[in-house]
Structure to design on (66 residues):
């Protein structure tokens, strides 16, 4: 029982450290950069039946979500 409790507490400490705010090179708190946008969102075309296809890139022509 103690072993399980120790593992759970270590896991909680690890996740708390990973979710900490962004820091700069000196260790000071800094504003986090915005997340990157999905590049494939604008590269979608619809065919005559209304299905969406990838417009360019290595997966050109494959069906995708609209």
């Amino acid at each position: 029982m103690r072993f399980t409790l120790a593992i759970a507490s270590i896991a909680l400490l690890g996740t708390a450290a990973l979710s900490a705010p962004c820091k700069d090179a000196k260790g000071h708190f800094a504003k986090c950069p915005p997340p990157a946008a999905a590049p494939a969102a604008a590269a979608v075309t619809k065919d005559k039946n209304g299905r969406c296809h990838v417009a360019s890139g290595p997966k050109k022509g494959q069906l995708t979500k609209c």
